Amino acid sequence: MDRPALGRPMTGDPPRAVVLGGTGFVGAHVADTFADAGHDVLTVARRAPAGHRHRFTALDLGGTDPGTLARLLDAEDPVAVVDAIGSSWGLDPARMAERCTRPSALLLDALRRATCRPRLVHLGSVLEYGQPVEPADPRRTPAPDTAYGRAKLAATRAVLAAADAGDVDAVVLRLVNALGPGLPATSLLGRVAAALAPAARAGVAARVTLAPLEARRDFVDVRDAAEAVLAAAGRPVTGRVLDVGRGEAVPVRALVRLLVEVSGVQATVVERAGPAGWRAETRWSCVDPAPAAAALGWRPRRDLRRAVTDFWHDELRRYSGEGEPAAVGPPRQRAP
């Protein structure tokens, strides 16, 4: 069942949205975008960061039961539920499944039990495709080669099966790497910014040492990605998988150079040789954004320079103690 375009209920109260994982990097921007569009937003996560702007419920989806979540959803009666739950790099397959697959399965169980019928927007990952040699195609059989990709693919397949059975009203958005304000400190650009910020403050040169920058990846401004989620909450796209990206495989080395340029810091970037057999976790990624444009009426509005510039300015404010950065999640490496 497809929902009509989102709007305010006849009661005059604002429509409600629930964002699971709504305090993380992507989830927080999604929550902000729904709120800016007039929704009353509830974010759900294990803990709330300081300065969080939305209503919040603490809930560990890895340890709760579906009945508890179903009751929460019925109490909210939302028009949309966004599954923005992610995980960290480096976990073993069992832990990765616990962080990425189990919470999504619990959410599906809760939605089957609930009396409300919201649109579920499940956020998947480009890593579900594995290592394609051309733009990824949702019609092909994915072959993920990372624990994160396999765990996210299992969650996506569960969502699609539930939608096909008519148990839930759901769509899957597979996101590429997101950039913008609040990018985690342990991300590639986060590590570069950590070296540049004190140098910018002191007016001195900086030296940045990184692993080999060999990869080419599709990147999108996180605020554009959040706008795609908002569009997917009301469009007739039930049961579909749509890729959200810019459709460009950008050299990560060029992205680092762009951040250095934007910062204005005189910096030397050194690429340290990796260990024997080392390779980037994902050497190449790219998606075709045309299906999402057609189905959602969505296109990325911000170029990568703006994403990197806004990220840098946000980092400077945080480093200078002038306020909390926007949409900062727990200090861990987030996968797309």
Can you offer a commentary on this structure?
There is one protein chain. It is built from ten helices and 13 strands. 36% of the residues lie in helices and 17% in strands. Helix 5 (147-164) links the parallel strand 5 (119-125) and strand 6. Residues 323-334 have low confidence and may be disordered. 47% of the residues are buried. Helix 6 (188-202) runs parallel beside helix 8 and helix 6 (188-202) crosses helix 10 (304-319). The chain has 336 residues and is of the alpha/beta class.
In summary, what is this structure?
The chain is an alpha/beta fold. It is built from ten helices and 13 strands.
Oligomeric state of shown chains: single chain
Structural class: alpha/beta
Head-to-tail CA distance between termini? 28 Å
Sheet with the most strands?
7 strands, parallel
Beta-strand percentage range: 15-25%
List the total number of helices.
10
- The radius of gyration over CA amounts to 20 Å
Can you lay out the helices and strands and say which pair or pack?
Blueprint: E1 16-20, H1 25-36, E2 40-45, E3 55-58, H2 66-76, E4 80-83, H3 93-100, H4 102-113, E5 119-125, H5 147-164, E6 169-175, E7 177-179, H6 188-202, E8 206-210, E9 216-217, E10 219-221, H7 222-232, E11 241-244, E12 250-251, H8 252-263, E13 267-271, H9 290-296, H10 304-319
Parallel strand pairs: 1-2, 1-4, 2-3, 4-5, 5-6, 6-11, 7-10, 8-13
Antiparallel strand pairs: 9-12
Helix pairs in contact: 1-7, 2-4, 3-5, 4-5, 6-8, 6-10, 8-10
